[in-house]
Structures are given as structure tokens and as C-alpha cells.
Give the backbone structure.
Amino acid sequence: MNDLLFWQAVAVVLGAMVGSFLNVVIVRLPQEGQSVVFPASHCPVCNAAIRWYDNIPLLSFVLLRRRCRACRALISWRYPAVELAMALLSLALFRSFGLSVVFGIYFLYTAALLAIIFIDAEHQLIPDVISLPGIAIGLALSLINPLVGWQNAAIGILVGGGSFYLIAWVYYLITKREGMGGGDIKLLAMIGAFQGWQALPFVVFISSLLGTVVGIGAMVKQRKGGRTVIPYGPFLAIASLLYLFFRREILLFFFRFVLGR
């Protein structure tokens, strides 16, 4: 195995292992008072402790045939989905940035976004314990991030959080209903911290487009009309990931086809 394949394999294994931890975060963080460290992993049905050989990312799910060894209860597909998603994100980061500081910064960032996607999709909640430290960490890491200077990160925080706060405030004044949660505001501020203000127009546009398409589908399915509620955080996170991995292509398209340069 050559060095490139070796490090790609390391990236995949590392991503899968972190994905396994993210599953714990996704399950426990929305539950008030739950620790993501203690107790050790256990079956949510029978509470039996999960042995190390039954907790190998992806592999154990297949070997156990999607059932708990102790009580034979079905294991949710979310577990391998999160592990696989983080493994692929880690590989994509390595292929994009190599073994570098940038890889480490955005490995942490993508892990946070992945947890937010699954938590918000299920609970319509973006935990402050992820987004608020994420804003501070993103700004601090901008001091060593060659892709985003601290000025761009600081402006990204102000513009990201401020613009969504303004939109939410105006919407409430007009409709007397909350149309955007505070979690979305903090998430966009975190995105601005890690990716700079330049990412925000694309993230807001694409997330709105995705949200509109999915929202229309949800309205048709749920038959609730304007009362249909869908979480917006996953669309922000997905748009942010698209910009992270296709930043050059997006900017090239913008300058060539939009500005005509």
C-alpha cells in the first residue's frame, strides 16, 4: 500500500470512529442532564452494556445483523449512516486539504455540522453547546486558518448572526409568529466564523432553495399549509458543506456566469 492509500484509509477509519462518538452525542445531547461520556455505550432498549467488539464502527452493525446481542432489538439505521457519513467527509477533507492544519480545523467543523443535521432533523433543536463554542472556536482557529483570516471570520459572525436575527425579527413583526429559531441564527454565525462572510450568500441562497423544495413537499404530505414546520438547520449545514468542498467551482461560476468576468 502506498503512502496516499494508507493515509486515505487512516482518514476513513478516523472518520468512522468519530462518527461512532457522534451517535452518542446525537442521542444524548438533546436529553437534559445526559452526559455524552458516562455511562458507557449501552442498548437503549435493554440497557445492556455494549462490548467493545460490538461497537466497531460499521462492521459491528453488519456482523450483528442490525440487532442487539443481548435483547435482539433492532438497531437504528442512523448509527451506520452517521459513521459512514463522517468517514466519507473525513476522506473528502483529506483529498481536498491533505494532512494539514486545514484538515484538522474542518474535520472538527464537519463533525459538528453532522451532529447538528441529525439532532435538528429529529428534535428541531440546535444545541447551544455546539453552536456557541463553535463560534468562539471558529474565530480562534481563524488565526491559523489559511483559508479564512480573522477579519473575515469576525465579519462572518456579525453578518451571519445579525442578518438572520433581523430576518427573524421582521418576520415576527409581520406575522406574530416565530419563523426562525435562535439556533439557526447561532448556526449561521458559526458558519461565518469557520468559512468567512464570503460563504454566507451561497449558504443562505442554497439552504433557502433546499428548504423551499422540501417545505413544499412537506406541506403537500402533511396538509397543514402555512403551519407546516421543518427544521432549517440541516439545510444550512448541507449548504455549508457544499461550499467547503466546491468553493473554487462556486466562485468560478459566480465570476464567469454571474459577473461575466
Summary: The two ends are 44 Å apart (CA to CA). The chain has two domains: 1-99, 100-261. The mean pLDDT is 88.
